[in-house]
Amino acid sequence: MPLSPTEQPTTHAAGAVERLVRDDLDRKRFLKMLGAGGAASFGAFVIAACGGSSKSKSTSTRTAAAPTSGTGDVAILNYALTLEYLESNFYAKAVASRLFSGKDASMLETFGAQEHTHVEALKGAVQKMGATPAVDPGGKFPIESATQVAQLAYTVENLGAAAYLGQAAMIQSKEVLATALAIHSVEARHAATLATLVHKPITPDGAFAKPDDMSTVLAAVKPFLS
Amino acid sequence: MSHNPHPLIDAPATATPATAAVEVRGLTRASFVLRGALLAGATYGAAAVSPFVSHALAAGEGGDLEILNFALTLEYLEADFYNVKGRSLHLTGEARSYATMFGEQEQDHVSALTKLITSMGAKPVAKPAFAFPATSQSSFLALASVLENTGVGAYNGAAPALQSKEVLAAAGTIVQIEARHAAAIDLLVGKSPTPNEGFDIPLTKAQVLAKAGPLIKS
């Protein structure tokens, strides 16, 4: 909820984010912080907002595999970062394939650029929490025809949206949560757009989106990890 | 239309015992006052609601229940928009099929939020009367874009303030659908499906009310 001007945030991030979105200028600043060029400032913001180290004190019960290295919010951020790398790399290959033209090609380029801004934002967030970002896993994607690539993009975006949804309730920092939510709804927009391209459901799970847990998602992307 | 159960809200009561413990916290005096004021203010539109109400909102009281009742108001609005206004305009083609599908889904959101608020021991806000300034298919779609995109911003803006993780998870299952709706509508009217590129902007309650308030008539 928005704070009155004289109130200090009781949780470090909520008030800061609320103040950020309070007016147009701040909204642009919020966007800038999350954008490709703003990863460093986003991270600095997280540190400042949290009054110091943002390292989670909780321990994760999950085995620390490479894509999820770290604990708590760092693990979640690195997990998201891995997925964003895969999406970004996939779109780059799709565009380079020249299988698409016109509006479709333009859409793939745009979505790929947006995934890249997600990579930068998440990388910066992990670094400023004093942790090591997951490495770019590269990725091997079948690129055979426009129809097949568009279908794969639809599948990947739905998976990405489900992945963010699956983590939302476990994020501890309100700042990290705000970022995850800002990305989550964009992945959903991507999925819906690709749905119209491949004539698949805009809402494949009906009125309520379904979350996927980390092991489900990692198993699904395993074939693409080279 | 068939009822689409919500995977979290329609789960057996024993599955989410934590939710029951959360409910009472939201019923502060300020939120009672606020709720009444919001309903009264809705009669006169958003302009009449401030400054008293916006101060109460700014004070951050009311907790999860206030957020949920605000979300319920927006879902009532969207459901009415598609199901009542949409039908009255005799839409064609994709506009018609979207309005039918999205209208059903918004109604499912109404049902789920009503059930969730009730399960938390609180009273769901009553359905307001609405007036939508759309007289053609194109003005309908333009307003649909505004409403869906505002809905995304509303949920994303409110979610970090939620105290219950169960409520947050439920909100997440809904906001994703609003984002899908928004993209589909935006594409249909020739706009970018990602109006803010890679990151959707969270909105404050005041910003949401600025868009939705004028449509609420009672």
Overview of this protein structure:
The complex is a heterodimer of chains A (226) and B (218). Chain A is built from eight helices and no strands. By secondary structure, chain A is mostly helical. The termini of chain A are far apart. With 218 residues, chain B is mostly helical. Chain B has eight helices and no strands. Chain B has helices at residues 17-22, 29-44, 52-58, 63-88, 93-119, 137-158, 165-188, 205-212. Chain B is globular and about 40 Å long. The two termini of chain B are 27 Å apart. Chains A and B meet through helix 1, helix 2, helix 5 and helix 7 of A and helix 3, helix 5, helix 6, helix 7 and helix 8 of B.
Short description:
With 226 residues, chain A is mainly α. Chain A has helices spanning 12-20, 24-34, 39-49, 72-96, 102-128, 146-167, 174-198, 214-221.
Structural key phrases:
heterodimer; A: 226 residues; mainly alpha; Ferritin; disordered N terminus; B: 218 residues; 8 helices; 62% helix
Class from helix and strand fractions of chain B: mainly alpha
Portion in strands of chain B: under 5%
Question: Helix coverage percent of residues of chain B?
Answer: 55-70%
Number of helices of chain A: 8
Mean pLDDT of chain A: 80
Work out the number of β strands of chain A: 0
Q: In the CATH classification, which architecture of the domain at 72-224 in chain A applies?
A: Up-down Bundle
* Rg of chain A, alpha carbons: 18 Å
Biggest interface goes to: A-B, 56 and 59 residues
Helix count, DSSP H or I runs of 4 or more residues of chain B: 8
Just give the CATH class of the domain at 72-224 in chain A. Answer: Mainly Alpha
Low-confidence spans of chain A: pLDDT under 50, at least 5 residues?
A: 3-26, 35-65
Total DSSP E strands of chain B: 0
What's the order of the H and E elements of chain A? HHHHHHHH
Question: Residue ranges of chain B: pLDDT <50 for 5 or more in a row?
Answer: 13-61
CATH superfamily of the domain at 72-224 in chain A: Ferritin, core subunit, four-helix bundle
